[in-house]
Amino acid sequence: MIRIVGLTGGIATGKSTVSGMLRDLGVDVIDADVISRQVVEPGTEGLAAVAHRFPGVVGADGRLDRARLGARIFFDPAERAALNAIIHPLVQEEFRRRTRALEREGKSLVVYDAALLIENGLHRQMDAVVVVTAPEEVQRRRLMERNGLTGEEADARIASQVPLRDKVLHATWVVDNGGPLESTRAQVERIHAELRKG
Question: Coil, strand, or helix at residue 59?
Fold first, then answer.
């Protein structure tokens, strides 16, 4: 039986950094964000459904215009919920397919890297949950630098997710990624050692 560990965190807390460290340690990681992009590639049922519900978000090249879609959903919880209702089941189906494939290969552990793990109630299906945290001012600064957002836009994106203090309540382990990378790596290695012990 394969053990499934959920990995989540707030926006710009450095979840991808932790995911990369786990991969470096030889852990199989399934990234929900990567799957969510694949299920709306040109020609997919996902893109057709999104285009139908959100007219004008497909560019002239036939690809999803993520910036245009993002502008429509980030300030509107109802629109965001409508998008999740389309994408989420497709992502879950693909996640289950990939997990079954790893299990057939004899793998005993997989990490599911998903930003909305807790928002979507998926933490209940996990054998354990890792939550990556960072102080809100660090999240805000990273978002502004990484995405070129204004302070207001960064705050709206942070506010669109469940607060970190609430996510932590569901954590088996918490990784504080607000400091130096060496500190984060040490925390990840400690968790990995515990996972290997089973």
Answer: coil
- Whichever domain contains 68, its CATH number is 3.40.50.300
**How do 109-113 and 3-9 pair as beta strands?**
parallel
Average pLDDT over residues 175-192: 97
Residue range 129-170, pLDDT digits in tens: 999 999 999 999 999 999 999 999 999 889 878 899 999 999
Q: What are the backbone dihedrals phi and psi of residue 48, each rounded to the nearest 5 degrees, phi first?
A: -60, -40
Closest of 149, 151, 138 to residue 180, by C-alpha: 138
Is the CB of residue 123 less than 8 Å from the CB of residue 32?
no
Residue 128 is part of which domain span?
3-197
For residue 111, which phi and psi values (nearest 5 degrees)? -105, 130
Contacts of 14 (CB under 8 A, 6+ apart): 132, 134, 142, 177, 184
- Please tell me the total count of domains within the chain: 1
Residue 29, amino acid: V
